[in-house]
Every structure is written in structure tokens, then in C-alpha cells.
Amino acid sequence: MAHTGRTVGRLGEGDWDGKVSEIKKKIKSILPGRSCDLLQDTSHLPPEHSDVVIVGGGVLGLSVAYWLKKLESRRGAIRVLVVERDHTYSQASTGLSVGGICQQFSLPENIQLSLFSASFLRNINEYLAVVDAPPLDLQFNPSGYLLLASEKDAAAMESNVKVQRQEGAKVSLMSPDQLRNKFPWINTEGVALASYGMEDEGWFDPWCLLQGLRRKVQSLGVLFCQGEVTRFLSSSQRMLTTDDKAVVLKRIHEVHVKMDRSLEYQPVECAIVINAAGAWSSQIAALAGIGEGPPGTLQGTKLPVEPRKRDVYVWHCPQGPGLETPLVADTSGAYFRREGLGSNYLGGRSPTEQEEPDPANLEVDHDFFQDKVWPHLALRVPAFETLKVQSAWAGYYDYNTFDQNGVVGPHPLVVNMYFATGFSGHGLQQAPGVGRAVAEMVLKGRFQTINLSPFLFTRFYLGEKIQENNII
Amino acid sequence: MAAPWASLRLVAPMWNGRIRGIHRLGGAVAPEGNQKKKRTILQFLTNYFYDVEALRDYLLQREMYKVHEKNRFRDKEWIRPDKYGHFSQEFWNFCEVPVEAVDASDCDINYEGLDNLLRLKELQSLSLQRCSHVDDWCLSRLYPLADSLQELSLAGCPRVSERGLACLHHLQNLRRLDISDLPAVSNPGLTQILVEEMLPNCKVVGVDWAEGLKSGPEEQPQDTASPVPA
């Protein structure tokens, strides 16, 4: 039988001629004298497959990446990809943070997280050591936090200090007289009780921690990518609960990462997604379909994390409090601390719900300082009546509107998205502990060292608030 | 140490001869043939004969014993480990005696090691000179000693900076603080002034506050000549 040159069936779905011309084009491009388009440069793109994709490269995201690599069962067991939209971190909460760490919380879990973070920072050069790289100098000031309480908050402060001491934090309670004795520059009018952290409290340089984590995590083999997550592709599965109610479980199997200033995107096949996007976590959650459903149901429960703008002001006051000044948090919510040796101070105040500024941009509101911050500072520290503002900046809190505490752990319906966000201003100081907890959850399936089950997502649906009272 | 002593006993008869031999040798050399030559002969012999080495050790120990006889510490001798490295049982009799001074200079004491020192409620003087692992975190632990500590020395600690010195304000009974030679302190003169303000009853030693200050008249012509940076 004569062969017509046309083959169908096994050898091809298309026509043979088309295939031949394609093959001819490829051969021609290999031969010298033509530009070779076979292998395109994809070095700027993330890999096509990754076991874990961490959305957000701030201190929480990097901490999760670090602990995933530390706790993996053998070296190179999992491939971790960190996707960060802005490698200059110009709006990231980490770099703009005041950098404080304290154990004076009301929840035992928060206290344990901060205690672990203090020991992590103390031994940071053992945790984050990289061969041939210089050791990190966190510039830690162990000066402690001083929280002041008025008459109506004094009882709550006492019970909080009791909990803190039970967990192992070294906090001392002071009466107004003792306060005046220790810090003569304080005006104790309106202060009924004060709690002073004696050890493991103070402030440090958050940039140093961020760069140290980045360096270490890169040396451990974590991949970085500058891009934005634009889409999640997930597969659903209909299952029945024990009460025979139908529930749809979703599993994200692909993440689309769009490159900066371009339409190009890379689909990354993944097994686990970590949402560590800070102030923008709710957008990432919405992409995964969290909150799409009738309100009042688990499907309809959104992630209640939104960006809140906070201003920090730097001023100079030559007769101000001396070297021993702790980070003072006033009864009015205003706070300040020393910065360096040259009589410079920085501080601010959390606005009330009505005063909340528009988080659309990071422009500083100087009138807020004049009207709402300075009067309280001058009342508490008379020396601050004459001060001169040198500069100011603003940053975002990833504010959890539900109960101002973090969200940690997997989502009940989108089973492979883990949260590490919503810490409302104390994410930096709890990052090492939270990173370890999320890594344990991912690798071992449960919290092993610090039990953060009160911080799971399900509390938003069940309405179980774990209110943290000491938010600065 | 058993073997050398044994050998000494075995060669006892010859030992006397050798001693005389050494002295003879020493005497035989002319007086200006000096100390140096005498020592070299002894050294030479020490290198070649185990017995001479043991002899030298014995003589040295006799000398040290004489020195220790003279040294007393508050009418008690220093309590030292014996030749096996053990402390004698009578050490336990001193359980109740308060420790007033600790000299931990050049020690490898670190953050966890300070646990042992912080329990000494009557400690009056603490010296942490040149301790390479004492840093700002360690200084923040010293506040339990506030009631008794009167003298503290941090000279030469490479990791102590002005941020750690800020925690010393708890030690209100401190009368003497030595902060000389701290390489991690960014501005020693200014730090000295601030620490003195923080601890008014304490004599802060070690830094000249004028250090780092520019001398005025020589600098002025330079300033007017160069353009003022924006």
C-alpha cells in the first residue's frame, strides 16, 4: 500500500505537514546564523513547582521560612518560595516599626511568644549564623517597658502582672511614690499603679533582624521572588460532616505570581500557601475565596485584618529624661522612648476608633501630634513642654478588628492556606515564636512548643474573642 | 605524679651525688660566667634526666609552700583544690558565710552563668573585667544585686555598649563603677556624662569626658574655609 505521508491516530492529533514544518523551524534555529529562541531567560521568574509558597517577605514570612527549613526532617526536604511584592520594603510594617519587645500582655500565649522571642534575639548569632558573614548587632536596648495605669485600670494591671509572673516574665509593680523615686522626671498625676519590665524587654533594630533572617534563609536554600500573587487555582471536594451536612473543602494547587511592572506571570504549583502578607492579608484571603458566602456561615467569614496607619514622631528635648528611660506607655495611650545618646526621643499614640486616619497612604499627620499626642506627653513628663519635632514617619498595623490578636494556623475550609498575620502592632516581637508555631503546624500537624490554638481562624466564626488588653 | 617521686626514691643515693655535682658545676663556673649559664646547665640536665626534673619541681613546690605560709586571707588560708582537683570537706563549713566580693575577670561567664552570682545577696564588689561573653543582656540581669553592690568593674568587656550601661541605674548603692576601655561604646565621653547623671552617688571611673571633644581654636579656621554641608 502506498504511503500517502499522512498519519493519523497514534502519531499525532494535528496534521503531519504542520509538525514537519515546526521541526524544520526548530532545526533551522539551532543552526548557526539564526537567533535561538528555544531557551528563554526565565531567571527572573519563580520556579514552576514549590512545596510551600509564602506570600509576604516581611519578618513573619521570613520567620516561617526559617523555621520550616530548621525543622524539616532532612536537608532539602521541602522547597520554600517567598513571594514579596516590594523588595525595598518601603511600606512593610517590619522596617517602619518602633522595634519594641515586651512581655507585658494579658494572654499567657502572648507572654510565652515574647519570652521565646527574647531568647531568640539574645542568641541570634547562634540561630542565624551564616558562614563567613559578620555577626549581627541588633542594637538591643534592655531598658524595659513602663506601663502606667489609672485608677480604673489598676486592678486589671495587677491581675495581668500576676499572669505574666506565672509565665516567667520579670515584671515589678510600682506605686506612684516608688515611681517618683526611680524616675524623678515623671509626673504621677492620675497614675495609680505602674508595671515595669525588668528583664528581656526593650527595643532593637528591626531592619537588622529582617536582613539577618533574609541572609540566613537564603543560605538555607529558600527561593525568593519579587512579584505579586494575583490568583489562586484550587480544586474542591464535597464532603459530609459528622452531622451529615455538606461542606466544600478547597485545596489550592496553583499560585499565579505576576512579575513587577509587567503582565507576565508564572503559575507555581504548590502544596501549601502561607498568608503572611501583613496589612494586605485580607486581599490574599479574598483571592482564595475566604469570605465568599452568606454572612454568618463559615464560608462567609472573612479574615478581619485591615491596615491601620500609625504615625511615629521623633523629637529633640535637651532636658528630657536620662539614659535610664524605659519605653513609657501613658494612661492616655501615648508612648515614647529614647533614641540614641543625643537627647532624641520617639513616640506616638494610637488614635481612638473615631480618630482613625485613612490608610490609603503613609503620609504623616503632624496636626495629630500637636493636638492629640504632645499635650499628653507634656502632662506626663513636664520636661517635654519644650521639645522640637525633628522628623516623623508612618507605618501600617496589620490590625485584627475582631480582637487585636494574631491569626495563626490553617483555614478550616481552604485546608492548605495557613495564616501568620493580624498581630496588630506586636507582630515583630512575636515573629520568631509564631514562625516556629506555623512551621510545626505545617510539618507535624499540631502545635508542639507553644500552643496557639486560641489563635486559630475558627474563632471568628464561633465568636470567641481572645481580647488582648495591653495594646500600645 | 607518682612515677617521678618513685624514681627519686630509687635513685636516692645517687641523688646526693648529683646535687653535689650540680653545685660543683655551678661553683666551677667563674662568677661572671653568670646566672644564665648556671640555669642553662640545670635546664640541660632537666631536659635529659627525669630525676633532675622531679627535683626541680620539688624545690619549686617547697618555695611556693613558703610563700603560701605567708599569705593569709582574713585569717584563713585560701581554699584550693588538692592535687586530685577536689576541694576538702571543710569547705562545706563555709556555707553560711556571705560572699562579699567576686572577681570574675577574664572568665568565660555568660548570661546563664550569671544565675550563680545573682543569688549572692550580700555581694559588695563584682569584677567582670575583660569577660568576652558579658554583653548588654547580661547587664540587664544585675538588678537583684541592687541592695548590696557597691563596686562594679566592666573594664575591657568587648560586648558591653552604652545600651547595657543604661540598665545599671537600678544599682543605686553603687559607689564605684569602672567603664574604661569599652570598645563597643560609640561615644565614651558622652556616655560617661550620661552615666554620671544616672547614678549621682557613684564615682564613674575610666573615661575622660573630654575625650572626643574637638579643641576649639584650631578647628575654627578650618570650618570657615570649608563649605558648610547642607
Which structural class best describes the helix and strand composition of chain A? alpha/beta
Unreliable spans of chain B are 1-35, 219-230
The first-to-last residue Cα distance of chain A is 88 Å
Basic shape of chain A: globular
GO molecular function (chain A): oxidoreductase activity
Subunit structure (chain A): Associates with components of the mitochondrial respiratory chain complex I.
Organism (chain A): Gorilla gorilla gorilla
Membrane topology (chain A): Single-pass membrane protein
Set out the fold topology.
The complex is a heterodimer of chains A (472) and B (230).
Chain A: H1 16-30, E1 49-55, H2 59-71, E2 80-84, E3 100-101, H3 108-122, H4 124-127, E4 145-149, H5 151-167, E5 171-174, H6 176-182, E6 193-197, E7 202-203, H7 206-219, E8 223-240, E9 246-259, E10 265-275, H8 281-287, E11 305-316, E12 327-329, E13 334-339, E14 344-349, H9 366-380, E15 388-400, E16 407-410, E17 417-421, H10 427-444, H11 458-462
Parallel strand pairs in A: 1-2, 1-10, 2-8, 4-12, 10-17
Antiparallel strand pairs in A: 3-7, 4-6, 5-6, 8-9, 9-10, 11-14, 11-15, 12-13, 13-14, 16-17
Helix pairs in contact in A: 2-7, 2-10, 3-10
Chain B: H1 2-10, H2 12-28, H3 34-48, H4 50-70, E1 101-103, H5 114-118, E2 125-127, H6 136-139, E3 151-153, H7 162-165, E4 176-178, H8 188-198, E5 203-205, H9 216-225
Parallel strand pairs in B: 1-2, 2-3, 3-4, 4-5
Structural features, described:
The complex is a heterodimer of chains A (472) and B (230). With 472 residues, chain A is α/β, with parallel strands linked by helices. Chain A has helices spanning 16-30, 59-71, 108-122, 124-127, 151-167, 176-182, 206-219, 281-287, 366-380, 427-444, 458-462, and strands at 49-55, 80-84, 100-101, 145-149, 171-174, 193-197, 202-203, 223-240, 246-259, 265-275, 305-316, 327-329, 334-339, 344-349, 388-400, 407-410, 417-421. In chain A, the strands form 3 sheets. In chain A, strands 5-6-4-12-13-14-11-15 form an 8-stranded mixed beta sheet. The model of chain A is unreliable at 5-10 (pLDDT under 50). Chain B is α/β, with parallel strands linked by helices. Chain B has one domain (41-205): Leucine-rich repeat, LRR (right-handed beta-alpha superhelix), CATH 3.80.10.10. In chain B, 42% of the residues lie in helices and 7% in strands. Chain B has helices at residues 2-10, 12-28, 34-48, 50-70, 114-118, 136-139, 162-165, 188-198, 216-225, and strands at residues 101-103, 125-127, 151-153, 176-178, 203-205. A 5-stranded parallel beta sheet of chain B has the order 1-2-3-4-5, with helices on one face. The model of chain B is unreliable at 1-35 and 219-230 (pLDDT under 50). The interface between A and B is medium-sized, with 16 and 23 residues.
